[in-house]
Design goal:
This protein is mainly α and about 130 residues long. The chain folds into 2 domains: about 80 residues, no CATH class; about 50 residues, no CATH class. About 70% of the residues lie in helices and about 0% in strands. Helix 5 runs parallel beside helix 7. It is globular. The model has no long low-confidence stretch (mean pLDDT about 90).
Length: about 130
Amino acid sequence: MSNAHFESITKFINNVHPGAADHLEDVHELKKESVYAIFQEILRYATATSELALLAGRRYFNLLSPDWVRENISDAVPQMIDMNDEWDYRRLLEALSPKYPDLVDQFAKLGTLSDNPEIVEAATDYLEE
C-alpha cells in the first residue's frame, strides 16, 4: 500500500522507535509510553474520516500483537478516542470486527450503557449482527 497516510504512520512509528514499523508484532516489548504513542497514532488513523487514512491505520492495527491488543485496549481506547462520538465509536468497532469479535462484543455492550442515543444505536447494530 503506497499512500501518504501509510507513509506518515510508518514515519511516526519509526520516529518513536527505529525499525518498529517493520516489527509491530513485537512492539509490546518497547516502553509502555512508546507502545501507547504508536497505538494512539494507529487508532487515530484507523478511525479517520479519510478512506485512505482509515485503510492505512487498519492495516497497521492488524499487525499489532493480538495478545497485546486484548490486554491493553480496554484501558487505552477511552484515553485515545471519544467514546461519545458516533463516528469514532463505529470506526473502532469496524476496526475490531474482522480480527477481534470478542472485543467488538465488549465495546458494543459498553456502548449500550451510553447516554448518547447514537452510541446506543451503533452498539445495538453490532450486537444484532
